[in-house]
Amino acid sequence: MISSLNILIPVEYAQYANVVDFYRSVLRLTTHSTGISAQDNPWHSFLVREINLTIHTARDGRFPYPEFRPTGHGIVLAIEVESVDKEVKTLESFGVTLRNSMDYADGMKAVSVIDPAGNVLEIWGYA
């Protein structure tokens, strides 16, 4: 039985602060907790409706195990919002470039952007 869902996004140490700032400032996610792992690596966790999204890094490339590496296009986060148009204006005010935009017949919209580590985010919802 799964008791919780945590999404980990490993990023290179040099990109860590920019990635955390992107999720905190641009996407306006609420910080849940921050810390340093047993291997002296910083992490920053956001809570989104009972799901933890944690940005994790490794000093000097010392990730805890081989498959735990920066993804840079390896994941896509789909983020539902109340108004895509409003979010697009906010994203653009931070200098974020839209990569793709789709309008659906039912009024649904989706745009994609890239975080500082190269991960794809789809922002979707109604106009």
What would your notes on this structure say?
The protein has 127 residues and is an alpha/beta fold. The protein is built from 2 helices and 8 strands. The strands form 2 sheets. A 4-stranded mixed β-sheet has the order 1-4-3-2, covered by helices on one side. The termini are far apart.
CATH class: Alpha Beta
Calculate Rg over CA atoms.
15 Å
Amount of helix: 10-25%
Overall number of strands = 8
By CATH, the architecture is named Roll
Fill in the CATH topology.
Answer: 2,3-Dihydroxybiphenyl 1,2-Dioxygenase, domain 1
Look at the structure and give the mean pLDDT: 84
- How many domains would you count in the coordinates? 1
- Globular, elongated, flat, extended or rod-shaped: what is the shape? elongated
Distance between the termini: 37 Å
Low-confidence stretches: none
Biggest sheet architecture:
4 strands, mixed
What's the topology here?
Elements: E1 6-12, H1 16-26, E2 30-36, E3 42-48, E4 51-58, E5 76-81, H2 84-93, E6 100-103, E7 108-114, E8 120-126
Defining key terms:
single chain; 127 residues; alpha/beta; 2,3-Dihydroxybiphenyl 1,2-Dioxygenase, domain 1; 4-stranded mixed sheet; 17% helix; elongated
How would you briefly describe this protein structure?
The protein has helices spanning 16-26, 84-93; strands spanning 6-12, 30-36, 42-48, 51-58, 76-81, 100-103, 108-114, 120-126. It has 127 residues and is an alpha/beta fold.
